Amino acid sequence: MITCHIRYVVDQDKLTEFETYCRMWLELLPRFGGIHHGYFLPSEGESDIALGIFSFESFAAYEKYRQAAALDPDVAKAMAYYRETRCFLRYERSFFRPVMGEPLFAS
Questions:
Q1: Is 76 within a domain?
Q2: Residues 94, 97, 103, 107, Cα dihedral to 10°
Q3: CB atoms within 10 A of CB 107
Q4: Total domains present in the chain
Q5: For the sheet containing 35-40, what is the strand order?
Q6: Whole-angstrom Cα distance, residue 70 to residue 56?
Q7: Which CATH number covers residue 6?
Q8: What range does the domain containing 29 cover?
């Protein structure tokens, strides 16, 4: 499994627009075989950092998603929405290999 962590620098005046953009991707990514772990937006204080985390079975599966997404009309709509709103200023993408163990919280 490979997990992608995206660190966004967001425009605090456009958090509503950024949340709309996030919700688009929450629906889009699973269509391409990914598992979305969610977005995490600033909550308290003066933070301009948001996070997005999702996983794919392998880096090859991630690359297949990237190729398919480039041709998808709904992905094009999400990207057009970003270009229209400029709801984030930049992002950094990193990939991780998770090590899983016992749950942190008891159910």
A1: yes
A2: 60
A3: 3
A4: 1
A5: 35-40, 49-56, 2-10, 88-96
A6: 17
A7: 3.30.70.100
A8: 2-96
Cα–Cα distance measured from residue 17 to residue 5, given in angstroms and rounded to the nearest whole number: 20
Give the chain's length.
107
Integer CA distances (angstroms), 11 to 28, 79, 81, in order: 23, 17, 15
Is residue 28 domain-resident? yes
CA separation for the pair 2, 55 (Å, rounded): 6
Tokens of 50: 């948001």
Token pair 């270009």 is found at: 83
**How do residues 6-62 score in pLDDT, each as one tens digit?**
999 999 899 999 999 999 999 999 999 999 999 999 888 778 999 999 999 999 999
The tens digit of pLDDT for each residue in 14-27 reads: 999 999 999 999 99
DSSP 25: H
Q: Give the pTM.
A: 0.85
The values of phi and psi at residue 66, to 5°, are -60, -40
Q: Which pair of structure tokens corresponds to residue 88?
A: 């984030």
Query: Is residue 101, in this structure, part of any structural domain at all?
Result: no
* The token pair that represents 22 in the structure block: 């996030």
